[in-house]
Amino acid sequence: MTILDPADFVLEMPHAPRGTVPAGYAEMIAAVRELEDRITEAAPPAELVADIRRTLTALSSRLAEHAVPESERICGTLLDEPGRGQMLIPPLQVDEVCAEPLPSVRGRVTFGPRHIGGNGAVHGGVIPLLFDDFFGICAHVGRRPLARTAYLRTDYRAVTPVGTELQVLARLDREEGRKRFLVGELRDGERVCAEVTALFVQLKPGQP
């Protein structure tokens, strides 16, 4: 398959039913990401800072009027959109999900100016965040029961560039009872930027 299909996951995988998302919602998320990039790059004068602050405060007040419980929120439930329409994680686009013989997932991501740690390189903490979410997808392919991260190790092999489309790979290496061991790579073509391993543990009944 080439997209994330809710039918391939257990019910705990949050997703917005098709046709229920307001028109333009994904574009709104993309616009917020772009705003973060522009703020990161800019050295604005005080009057522009004040104007933007007033605008953002007004928008926040309008959105606050429509706050809903977590189970009813749209953010993070758009499985076909980069980063699932979630603004915290990088805008990862999933391209391929395979269930057999063991789950594997392929995708791509382009880090923006907001992800810079210094000297044009991606902040080291962004990469584990990316893989925690990406592994979460891989760990639940094939309607596997809900699991959570027990550990995640990142080995940095090369500087990760900003503004370049990178390849992201993950696979379920093995399962031992409730334990799911995952491995992944972040690549810039033939160059490996990071190698990542993780353990996800299936929740017991009643665990949050």
Automatic annotation (TrEMBL):
Location of this chain's protein in the cell: Cell projection, Ruffle membrane; Cytoplasm; Membrane
Topology in the lipid bilayer: Peripheral membrane protein
EC id: 3.1.2.2
Pfam family, one: 4HBT
One GO CC term on file: membrane
Signal peptide: none
Domain Thioesterase: 119-191
InterPro entries, A to Z: HotDog_dom_sf, THEM4/THEM5_acyl-CoA_thioest, Thioestr_dom
Stored SUPFAM superfamilies: Thioesterase/thiol ester dehydrase-isomerase
Catalytic function, reaction form: octanoyl-CoA + H2O = octanoate + CoA + H(+); (5Z,8Z,11Z,14Z)-eicosatetraenoyl-CoA + H2O = (5Z,8Z,11Z,14Z)-eicosatetraenoate + CoA + H(+); dodecanoyl-CoA + H2O = dodecanoate + CoA + H(+); hexadecanoyl-CoA + H2O = hexadecanoate + CoA + H(+)
Record key words, sorted: Apoptosis, Cell membrane, Cell projection, Cytoplasm, Fatty acid metabolism, Hydrolase, Lipid metabolism, Membrane, Transit peptide
Membrane-crossing residue ranges in chain numbering: none
The protein's enzyme class: hydrolase
UniProt family annotation: Belongs to the THEM4/THEM5 thioesterase family.
Protein name stated in the entry: Acyl-coenzyme A thioesterase THEM4
Organism annotation: Pseudonocardia thermophila
